């Protein structure tokens, strides 16, 4: 689609340039004499209309060059715009069938993004506090705002499953729930990572034997909940809970393990979106250009949430956009514009199933 758009745009640009060339040409009665063959003293005798015509030509040339430049920029943007129709239509159908949407509970108020809406819905989540969504998209791990508020694992509608004491929670910036809902990683970026066992009544802390994991920036569980991929100093590792050892995978940042276990998505040192199989060393780039921050898998591993920042920043305009990448064919679509920088952070968003429960639970702002 991008190649076709580029060829059509190039043809239109050439036709536009031909029209501009005819507009720049002066009519016969305003043609200027050839001054290259005139004696120097004769130039002093040229009428004022000559210099007026010369100014007119320069102005027309400047305008045509400016129009050509803006035409090239417009065609480049058009040719690189994601093919949105098919992917967006599929996401809207999934939303109607299973309630698929995007939610952010790492800010107050929270945000819910529906694929058929242009702008997110802002939610009054002050009583909830901050929360992370489990990989299945139907459970939340919340940290209450006060010691008396509930902290722990619950369903989207607020039904409590496992309570965690305020003392055991400590201070964390992100909550990464294991797929089996029996463990959670409490993360403070680059400072500490603590693992809690939610299957025991007292939710004891799971001992971490690798110092790199304790200082990790990003973590993500394997589908079996027996391993964790994490980033430490721009290197990506896989930690095995049974053995307590880690092995190096690849250089990069922001690893995210797909729910089906096939891929680990990450951002390369060149800020490119990459995927790699956990047992291999060859990574694959999945889209051209740079991405902003990390990536986020949908519950069925068919989509990746990504963010791109616009190269040309317009004052009071959008900084970039959030998009969805479809893994099976590389098609993608723009989901929403990012009005400020914190919105261009896919790792703060989560895919949810059953967004209507969220709308029923929290009041809209």
Provide a quick synopsis of the model.
The chain is α+β, with helices and mostly antiparallel strands and 365 residues long. It is 24% helix and 31% strand.
Question: What would your notes on this structure say?
Answer:
- By secondary structure, the protein is an alpha+beta fold.
- It has two domains: 79 residues; 277 residues, TolB, C-terminal domain (Neuraminidase, 6 Propeller), CATH 2.120.10.
- A four-stranded antiparallel β-sheet has the order 3-2-1-24.
- Strand 12 and strand 13 form a beta hairpin.
- Helix 1 packs antiparallel against helix 3.
- About 1% of the residues have low confidence.
Largest sheet: 4 strands, antiparallel
Kindly state the mean pLDDT as a whole number?
82
- Biggest sheet strand order reads 3-2-1-24
Structural class comes to alpha+beta
Question: Can you count the beta strands?
Answer: 24
CA(first)-CA(last) distance: 39 Å
CATH class of the largest domain: Mainly Beta
Share of helix, binned: 10-25%
Strand content: 25-35%
Question: Which features does this protein show?
Answer:
365 residues; alpha+beta; Neuraminidase; 2 domains; 4-stranded antiparallel β-sheet; 7 helices; 24% helix
Topology:
Layout: H1 2-24, H2 40-43, H3 48-80, H4 85-98, E1 100-104, E2 110-113, E3 121-123, E4 130-133, E5 139-143, E6 152-155, E7 160-163, H5 166-169, E8 174-177, E9 183-188, E10 192-197, E11 205-206, H6 211-214, E12 218-221, E13 227-232, E14 235-240, E15 246-251, E16 253-257, E17 264-267, E18 273-276, E19 283-285, E20 296-297, E21 303-309, E22 320-326, E23 332-338, E24 350-353, H7 355-361
Helix pairs in contact: 1-3
